[in-house]
Design goal:
By secondary structure, the chain is mainly α. It is built from 19 helices and 4 strands. A hairpin with a 2-residue loop joins strand 1 and strand 2. The protein is globular and about 55 Å long. The termini are far apart. The C terminus is likely disordered.
């Protein structure tokens, strides 16, 4: 009954069910990769086709507010495909960005009421049921989630980092559901959200993803600064206690030393120091095509040209800002910041309407912008789907409130 009332389900049951299960599909999709063409790629195309097809069928249109946010970034992205030396690869990669736009637009277009927003939040929360169940199994049988770096929890995701950011999002959405005055849930659902926050934190620690730890800490810390000061103290206490965990100490100690000697007498950089060297090495290439870049997702293609290594394959930038500057130039980077800052300002302008809920959302967006500094966030598809779904839905509610206020004001003037 809850599902059938959702605007997403009414618009497209296929898209709704896909979003509900996408967090659990990576193991299945991995088995369908044949020659670079996978069922996952077909799902991406399906989201785009169903979205635009649905708009045509319902004689709808993409809201002007959405186009103002996304148009510049999408146009530069399409230009970067044309100028790319590997246009097919660039197109296939950029399709992921098009799905983020489609999902954001979908939520923005079809969320018209508080109940619609609540249905989106429930979809995101319920999508975590299978990943958490698999995580329990992986805790019980550590060998199922052990990598060359030791035990790193990955749930149903293809990499622990992606699962880590998904956990941060689940914790943030749960916290929003508890604190926001915009949505009203049953006591049972609030209890579920309350339980999911510490569960997400435990699983997050086990992923050993440092940047996601920072994001989790930042969300609750920023919320504390903006609204409830007790959360500042709480997060500081939790941070101190976490330092007593051995593997947390190891992960932080790894960053404290820029390099270490290998058995062969060579020097091995830690992951952050290595990334900084890569970013500096790519600067000359970025300057060569400073406006529109080298083509979407070409950083790895050119990697060995500006960074000499013994390996024969390239690496991504592990920094969304550097990656975009390289792939799409500073014009692309500018419009990416326009997109993020635009969404941030929307929530900031409506802060007084729901201070607690908007504090959580502002903290979530700010933490996302911070971790863009150290991760390939744009490539974390399943996590990004849920993030842009949430942001599209909350932005839609903000616009509905503004329109309602304007309409009420006009009616008052007419009556006067």
């Amino acid at each position: 009954m809850i599902i059938r009332k959702s605007p997403l389900y009414i618009f497209s049951p296929v898209i709704y069910l896909l979003l509900l299960t996408r967090a659990s599909l990576d193991p299945i999709l991995k088995m369908t990769d044949f020659g670079g063409i996978s069922f996952g790629a077909l799902l991406n195309l399906a989201v785009i086709v169903f979205f635009f097809g649905g708009l045509l069928q319902n004689r709808g249109s993409i809201p002007a507010s959405v186009l103002k946010l996304w148009a510049g970034f999408l146009v530069v992205g399409l230009i970067s495909i044309v100028i790319s030396p590997i246009p097919v690869t660039s197109f296939r990669s950029f399709v992921s960005v098009l799905t983020y736009f489609a999902i954001f637009s979908l939520a923005y277009t079809f969320v018209r009421s508080r109940e619609d927003l609540e249905s989106i939040i429930k979809l995101i929360i319920y999508s975590s049921s299978i990943p958490f169940a698999v995580s329990i199994v992986q805790f019980a049988f550590p060998e199922t989630s052990t990598t060359r770096h030791g035990f790193r929890l990955h749930g149903t995701f293809s990499h622990p980092n992606i699962y880590a950011f998904y956990l941060v999002l689940i914790a943030a959405v749960s916290f929003y559901s508890i604190k926001s005055n915009t949505v009203f849930f049953s006591k049972r659902f609030i209890r579920l959200c309350t339980a999911l926050i510490p569960l997400s934190a435990i699983c997050l620690i086990a992923t050993q993803t440092r940047s996601a730890w920072v994001a989790f800490f930042a969300i609750f810390f920023i919320y504390g600064v903006l609204y409830e000061r007790k959360y500042v103290v709480l997060m500081c206490c939790i941070g101190v206690l976490a330092l007593f965990l051995p593997f947390v100490q190891d992960r932080i100690a790894d960053l404290a030393s820029d390099s270490q000697m290998t058995d062969s007498g060579g020097e091995k950089l830690n992951s952050y120091a290595w990334r900084k060297v890569v970013w500096l090495s790519s600067w000359e290439f970025i300057q060569n095509k400073i406006f529109f870049g080298h083509g979407y997702n070409t950083f790895a293609y050119y990697f060995l040209d500006f960074f000499t290594m013994e390996e024969s394959h390239g690496f991504d930038a592990h920094n969304a800002y550097v990656q975009i500057a390289f792939d799409m130039g500073f014009v692309g980077l500018f419009f990416y910041l326009v997109l993020l800052v635009g969404i941030l300002l929307k929530h900031l302008k409506s802060f007084a309407k729901d201070p607690k809920g908007n504090s959580v959302l502002l903290a979530l967006i700010s933490s996302y912008m911070v971790v863009c500094y150290s991760d390939n966030i744009l490539f974390y598809l399943s996590y990004c789907w849920y993030l842009w779904l949430l942001l599209g839905a909350t932005c839609a509610m903000l616009e509905k409130r503004v329109k309602k206020k304007i309409t009420s004001h006009i009616d008052w003037i007419n009556k006067s």
